Fold each of these.
Amino acid sequence: METDPRQLDTRVKVVTPENIAFQYHVAGPFRRLPAYLIDLAIRVGICLAALFGLSIVFSLAGLGNVGQGLWCVLFFLLAWFYGGVFETFWNGQTPGKRMMRIRVLSVEGQAINASQAVLRNILRAVDSLPGFYLLGLISASMNDRFQRLGDLACGTMVVSEEPHWLRGVAKVNEPEVLRLTARIPAWFQPNRSLARALAVYVGRRANFTPSRRIQIARYLGVPLRERLGLPQRTHLDYLLCALYNRAFVTDEVPESGAPDAAGTVTAQRVEGDPPLPAAVGSVTDQRGDS
């Protein structure tokens, strides 16, 4: 796999051998620090509770040294293997990382394996030198994926999980949108980039006022209106919703050659043409969308 060298922000693009690009937002120090503190608090809490419980139980049995020995074993395991075990079985997350919505992945965008999870956490001791994770912070500031030495050695990176704004297929049942949907030519089939833009717009349009919708929709709606040969008075907000309906929701089109109310002749949808999937994640096709 290869990565995109033109990085302007925290996004990293990973291109697979199949020419599919995945975009990730790498997590910086200020996103990872709270996760580390949460995990540290959990480990300290477990150690204190275990020390108190083991001391009472084994002291009553006259085996105080055994209790101390077990506590030392528990402290060792938590100090060196807490993060590795959780990241192995929780798909790159610890409790702190899950709460902060970050995850460890390989630099190829794949899930990390057990050896990567354990080793990157053991090497945390090196990153903490000479104190306050100074060596790790210097290393993270010198590369575009914010990788500390443990990440560089294991080929891993920490990414932010984007919130899922859209869930399933949105329903746009406004009468004006439904009427305009019937006027969209049957040959219209958006590429992946356009389909994602339509899905994001429809998913978020409820957060905008009608005037703001027009202002946002005109950047995409005006060229699409001209491409489809629709009248100048076509409502741009409704147009984007109608295109979304045509791409994701409905397969019904007017009969072939039948003019609609505006005199536009539409063609029959080709039988067997699969509709685009409704997924709108951060996956883009690099095969030459136009």
Amino acid sequence: MPSSTETRLRRRLPRLHKRFTPLVFAFYMAGIMALLMSAVIVAAGSGLGADYPWRVLRAYALAMPVAFVCVMLVRPVVMRLVALTVQG
């Protein structure tokens, strides 16, 4: 059961129509994956120095739009693979 804070927050936030679900999913998926990958790749490539957060943000600024476009392009292929793999 949602908490009262969660319920109040849901009432205040503007909501998109459900037809935007694939777009919103792609946006969140790309954003989270791009941030995680940027953090790991920057750490592996140049270490965890004092300017690490700024280097991650610079990498993320490039990775996020690329990841979003890739998720949108690859989504139909993934949906087809899931349909072939999962009983339904």
